Amino acid sequence: MFRQATSQDIEVIHSLIVSEAAQGRFDPRLAEEVNQAALRKNLNTIRKRGRRLDEDLEAQLLVWETDEGEMAGCLINSAIMPGLGNEIWMVAVLPAFRGKGEGSHILDKALAFLHPRVDVFSRCAAEAQVLYQMNLRRGFLPLDVTEKGVRVMKFPRMGSSLAGQDAVQQALGPFVEIPQG
């Protein structure tokens, strides 16, 4: 289940994201020593104020716990523009819990709440094959590829489709927070 991240969780989440970035699953610049303090500050600001510093957007930093209460991973749910849109910005699973379905549980729980209500977006680095495939299996549709090879995907809300939409003309609803528990 999800719970709000605490100050005690930040170091674990920070280390996990830096490690994942070093392996190409997130923006590789996050793994550079010069950017690690800014990442830690961003994570703390999301936790304390519900805002991303890097783009001044609403965001949630949620911890995923197993049935036994162990931290298995995290998810950052972010607005796309101020007050608008939902993006599964980051999903990460701790190494001890990989291959056990925890990443699927995280994504499924988030989407079960968000999907009927709003379009959900996701950006996947070219190297992030696992997340890209997980998204495709859940119904995300490819929308665009940036000049850096990042694949932009959209999971249309119930009753909508991608027909007639392009990356520039997306209609965004209000940002929706994922409940805890």
- Return the CATH architecture: 3-Layer(aba) Sandwich
The fraction of residues in strands falls at 15-25%
CATH domain topology: Aminopeptidase
* CATH superfamily membership: Gcn5-related N-acetyltransferase (GNAT)
Explain what this protein looks like in three dimensions:
It is a single chain. By secondary structure, this protein is an alpha+beta fold. It has one domain: Aminopeptidase (3-Layer(aba) Sandwich), CATH 3.40.630. The protein is built from 4 helices and 8 strands. It has helices at residues 10-22, 33-49, 102-114, 129-138, and strands spanning 2-4, 51-52, 57-65, 71-78, 86-93, 120-124, 141-145, 151-155. Strands 1, 2, 3, 4, 5, 6, 7 and 8 form an 8-stranded mixed sheet that branches. Strand 5 (86-93), helix 3 and strand 6 (120-124) form a beta-alpha-beta unit. Helix 1 crosses helix 2 (33-49).
Q: Can you tag this structure with a few keywords?
A:
Aminopeptidase, 8-stranded mixed β-sheet, 181 residues, alpha+beta
In short:
With 181 residues, the protein is an alpha+beta fold.
Topology:
Layout (H helix, E strand, L loop, with lengths): L1 E3 L5 H13 L10 H17 L1 E2 L4 E9 L5 E8 L7 E8 L8 H13 L5 E5 L4 H10 L2 E5 L5 E5 L26
Parallel strand pairs: 5-6
Antiparallel strand pairs: 1-3, 2-3, 3-4, 4-5, 6-8, 7-8
